[in-house]
Write a structure and sequence with these properties.
By secondary structure, this protein is an alpha/beta fold. It has one domain: Rossmann fold (3-Layer(aba) Sandwich). The protein is 34% helix and 19% strand. It is built from 5 helices and 5 strands. The chain has helices at residues 14-24, 39-47, 66-76, 93-99, 112-122, and strands at residues 5-10, 31-36, 54-58, 81-86, 104-107. The protein has a 5-stranded parallel sheet, with helices on both faces. Helix 2 packs parallel to helix 3. Mean pLDDT is 86; it is low at 126-143.
């Protein structure tokens, strides 16, 4: 039986959290999703030793940016993999995120399959096939 991977998903926009949850549920029973609308609470969870295999965070959030959260994650759990999602991918944004510890970076909007592929790669499951029925392959996650 496959090991369950824990994923912490952080985004202040409820609609985007719903889209991410719906998309990531297609990974099946292999994942335990934790949705967190507050980057500060997410940072506290990491500082308090809560363990995750992957952090997926939005970049632009009130109170604490995804960049700041990446730094907390790097300090609290250096082996945790991280993925940044942003609608603000201009200039040197990706370079700054990678310097702060991001292993993955996706600009919005993105296709659900692109997100799933990136997550599988980061979790070390690059060859995994998604056996879940897909009804809206062309829908964008553009929130």
């Amino acid at each position: 039986m496959a090991t369950v991977q824990r994923i912490l998903v952080v985004d202040n926009e409820a609609g985007m959290l719903e889209v991410l949850e719906e998309t990531l549920r297609r990974l099946g029973r292999r994942v335990d999703l934790e949705l967190e609308p507050s980057p500060r609470r997410a940072a506290d969870r990491l500082r308090n030793g809560e363990s995750f295999d992957l952090l997926i965070t939005n970049l632009q959030m009130p109170g604490m940016s995804g960049l700041q959260l990446l730094r907390v994650a790097r300090d609290a759990a250096p082996s945790m993999r991280t993925l940044v999602l942003t609608g603000y991918a201009a200039g040197d944004t990706e370079r700054r995120c990678r310097a702060a510890g991001a292993l993955g970076f996706l600009a919005k909007p993105f296709l659900p399959e692109v997100l799933l592929g990136e997550v599988r790669t980061l979790l070390g499951e690059a060859g995994s096939a998604d056996t879940t029925a897909v009804g809206d392959d062309q829908a964008h996650a553009d929130a």
